Amino acid sequence: MKTNVFTFGPIVAAILAPAHSAIAQTGGISSATQNKSQGQVIATFYYSNSDKGWDRNGRSIDIADYQKVELYLLAEYRATDDLTLIATPSFRNVSVEDGDDTRGLGYTELGARYDLAAGEGWTVAAQGTVRIPGSTRQDNLAQVGNTNMEYDARLRGTYGFAVGLESAFIDVQTSYRFRAGDPPNEFHGDVTVGYRPVSDLLLMAQSFNTISDGRGAGIFDRYRYHNVQLSAVKDVGNGVSIQAGWLGTVAGENALRERGFFGGLWVRF
Question: Which residues are CB-neighbours of 155 under 8 A, at least 6 positions away?
């Protein structure tokens, strides 16, 4: 028996704001680990399931079963010492209990990151991206995803340091996302901590936090959600690594409580 407390509006808000950001997830790792490659391509596959959600008071409740499969392809190219170009197309398949499956292109992000200042082991950068929707459908938005343009303005600080004979880094990002149409704008705060216990293995703990800037129009209520990802990245060849990890939503309001896993292939050149 599914509760009716988690209404259609919050479900739409939760799904339209993706739980994972490929750029936030991987941006800065190269510089933090002293990788001197000029570019990188990272393909990441996500699977997540949610049979519970968070209501407007932050309580866990039963909802219609929801499954999502996503594929992100992050491409970064260092055009100059300070300027990095970014492109991130995505594909998604969404299935909601008693609803139709929807599949197709998700958002494609295009933009650039510029290093504002740097010192011994640290970098401060500004990043701007345009998020282009892959679908123009206006029906069944809860499954298709947002169909309007979005614009993300981000500030990031990265610091790499030694831990004994090994290396580690912390990457902190904050952004404001402007969203066209009815959904509210969003505040984002992301933190990544990485540690290399050996030279060919990177362990990462990541926190992704999204808070709506109040309510949107129409059915869009306010929402927030806080996701955690734990993963390991193993170097398997010259410039090639594989990644595997777990993801979950640890708290939220008017949001899905997702659980899942992901894997990735990293190629640096």
Answer: 124, 125, 126, 127, 173, 174, 175
Q: Is residue 3 domain-resident?
A: no
User: Cα separation of 8 and 109, whole Å?
Assistant: 27
At 74-84, the pLDDT tens digits run 999 999 999 99
- 2 belongs to a structural domain: no
The Cα–Cα gap between 207 and 215 comes to 24
Q: What is the pLDDT of residues 82-133, one digit of tens each?
A: 999 999 999 988 888 877 777 888 899 999 999 999 999 999 999 999 999 8
**Partner residues linked to 40 by β-bridges:** 76, 268
* 14 found inside a domain: yes
State the DSSP string of 32-60: HTT---SEEEEEEEEEEEEEEEE-TTS-E
Examine residue 150 and state whether it is found in any structural domain, yes or no. Answer: yes
| CATH assignment at residue 203 | 2.40.160.40
User: Rg of the Cα trace of the chain?
Assistant: 18
- Provide the residue range defining the domain that includes 237: 8-268
Backbone angles phi, psi at 9, to 5 degrees: -55, -55
What is the per-residue burial (b if ≥16 Cβ within 10 Å, else e) of 24-50? Answer: bbbbbbbbbbeeeeeebebbbebbbbb
Contacts of 7 (CB under 8 A, 6+ apart): none
As for how many domains the chain has, the answer is 1
